[in-house]
Amino acid sequence: MKLVSLLLALALIVPVTAIALSSGSSGASGTFPGELAQCATFENGTRYQAGSYPVVVLSGSFYDMGRQYGELMKDELRGEHAMLVANLTERGYSTGALRDDAKEATALQPKRMKELQAGMAETSGLSEADVAILYEGPIFFAMMPRLQTGCSFLAAWGNYTRDGSVVLSRNYDLPDVFSVFDPYYTLVVYNPTDGSNGVATFGPAGTRPETLMNSAGLFIADDNAADSGGVLSIAGRPDLISEFFRLMLDYSDMEGLDAGISSQRTDVAWIVNAAGPDVAYSYEETVYDIKRREGDGCIAAANHFVDPSWRLAASPAEHSTTRYSNLLNLTEQHRGAIDGEEMVRIRDVLLQDGGATFHHDLLGGYPYSSTHQVTFLPKTRTLWVKVVDRDWQRVELGHLFSS
């Protein structure tokens, strides 16, 4: 079973009543290295707490970092696996089928990622097959009928930002049924000792990373593109999302990252958003072609292709075009004043108020939310993270990278 081919395009119709920037309730708070509360250590790994979010900083070989992750996050990994299996077996999946599908979906992962997972299995008390189920967990949930996925991206630089450098944000939007993953959200910082870049990921513990930053100030994330790019998948190609980790490890500037993304042939349609300290791009990808979009100091993406050369026969979903337009409008309204805190406030604006954020909105019969949100300053490696119904939390990533 090709799990990625079962991801659905967004099809929500959401009205917009006004374009207005919210002035309060972002809950933004400041956390700096000295304020991280150390919770535990194991070998060369340390677990901290930043507000309501675990921060796990790892160092060593990929296998060693996996061991550290497995020990420091043992309770969460085992609890999340038990939750996942219980939910999916209740819906008719057998444990054997889950293991078989997860094995197939992760077969083409890069070696470094497989070494991480082998180390995790050794210390977490889970088998490697169970770790693979964890990795694919959100995709198993996406197979549920009628559930759709979202996401959006916004980057500003040049005349739009206070210092001219890139300020970016991303929303990861999903039905509220995915809230079972919310307690497990973790910021993980990998510091490999093989000369690769340090890489940070934010997502549920053990699941595939879809929001990544590296020690060179690069960023990469994805938006679902099935609405424009279709649901066709190509066997024998690596899962594009698993390649994000490799790209962040190996590239230290936008020229290299651009070449890496442009030369990677995707297995299923995606919108890939990438940025560095000085520029951001959005890549619209099908299994046959890829088009890079650029911006003049501002670029946004939702869940539809914007490049007119695609000549799409069907019009994009209204909810996607509305979120896309709202982000551009808010950026224009705050031209010259955008910094990290201002981007946090932009991301606090709900869809019905002229923004792009869902908050338990009943859409198509299901409540949806922006499950997690990120604001990032590539120049300083300053990061803000948020999980729905929690406060924003600021973390100075630069101090957590060893290089």
- In CATH, the homologous superfamily of the largest domain goes by the name Penicillin V Acylase, Chain A
Q: List low-confidence stretches.
A: 1-34
**Average of pLDDT:** 90
Highest-level CATH class of the largest domain: Alpha Beta
Q: Could you say what the CATH architecture of the largest domain is?
A: 4-Layer Sandwich
Please characterize this protein's 3D structure.
The chain is of the alpha+beta class. It folds into two domains: 7-30 and 142-398, Penicillin V Acylase, Chain A; 33-141, no CATH class. Helices cover 29% and strands 26% of the residues. It has helices spanning 62-72, 74-90, 95-106, 111-124, 128-135, 137-142, 226-229, 240-250, 254-262, 318-333, 340-347; strands spanning 37-42, 45-50, 53-60, 152-156, 167-175, 185-192, 199-204, 211-214, 219-224, 270-275, 280-285, 290-293, 298-301, 359-363, 366-377, 382-387, 393-396. The strands form two sheets. Strands 1-2-3-6-7-8-9-10-11-12 form a ten-stranded mixed β-sheet. Strands 4, 5, 13, 14, 15, 16 and 17 form a seven-stranded antiparallel β-sheet that branches. Helix 2 (74-90) packs across helix 5. The longest helix has 17 residues, at 74-90. It is globular and about 50 Å long. The N and C termini lie far apart (40 Å). Mean pLDDT is 90; it is low at 1-34.
